[in-house]
């Protein structure tokens, strides 16, 4: 019984995910799975609140936003936090949701009107006891050899990438038309250190190991949400949580729930 209710819930999540767009929206699924988990939901509310808050000068409070993001990734359930960060998209609506998930207006861009040099970002990171070990771990874990991950290296690479969220190097998806990621910086004014600058930027923009690990993450996708649903002892309860707590659910969601229930005898 529990197994079948679980599957019906998974189907429900998938249906809700596709209700607002053609095709699957894994990033919407991930957001809903986080909403259904009290810890994930609480930590997400925390970082969104901190990252949207304005200081007296009108800027966002980057230090608080980053601290809350680090807390989200260090204390949240990894299956859910990683699903939000690495959900794969086929359409722009999904990719736009993914790009906006970690409040890039503060966490990624900060108060900069235009991107700083990547060398500045690198230097800020090297001076930071929080950032430096995380960047070293990322370099070690996502280093292509020669241009792919070593066998089994992918998950470690993704953990190290997630570890950079909320540091001086915080990366994000650069647009809603690709899965390209980078920190908020460029190498336009790096002068005679251009090569050093581009090699740092290339850790994100030309890293086959990282790209491959992100794509591979998606192959385990349905089981991630399934495990999360199974971990709820009372499936009926989690259904209530999902449907009452996520304000992003469209008006069509009740209809979707009803149609799932109506379809159930056919499944
Ligand atoms: C995708 O990004 C472009 C450029 O920033 C923007 O104009 C467009 O509205 C975005 N698409 C979606 C679905 O948000």
List keywords for this structure.
mainly alpha; two-stranded antiparallel sheet; 2 strands; 62% helix; 2% strand; disordered N terminus; disordered C terminus; binds 2-acetamido-2-deoxy-beta-D-glucopyranose; cell membrane; GDNF_rcpt
Give a verbal description of the structure.
This protein is mainly α. It has helices spanning 2-19, 26-35, 38-52, 62-75, 78-86, 92-100, 104-107, 118-126, 131-141, 154-163, 194-205, 208-219, 221-230, 235-245, 252-263, and strands at 171-173, 181-183. Strands 1-2 form a two-stranded antiparallel sheet. A hairpin with a 7-residue loop joins strand 1 and strand 2 (181-183). Helix 2 (26-35) packs antiparallel against helix 5. The radius of gyration is 20 Å and the shape is globular. It starts with a helix and ends with a helix. Belongs to the GDNFR family. Keywords: Cell membrane, Glycoprotein, Membrane, Receptor, Signal. InterPro entries: GDNF/GAS1, GDNF_alpha, GDNF_rcpt. It holds the Pfam family GDNF.
How is the topology of this model organized?
Blueprint: H1 2-19, H2 26-35, H3 38-52, H4 62-75, H5 78-86, H6 92-100, H7 104-107, H8 118-126, H9 131-141, H10 154-163, E1 171-173, E2 181-183, H11 194-205, H12 208-219, H13 221-230, H14 235-245, H15 252-263
Antiparallel strand pairs: 1-2
The structure holds 2-acetamido-2-deoxy-beta-D-glucopyranose.
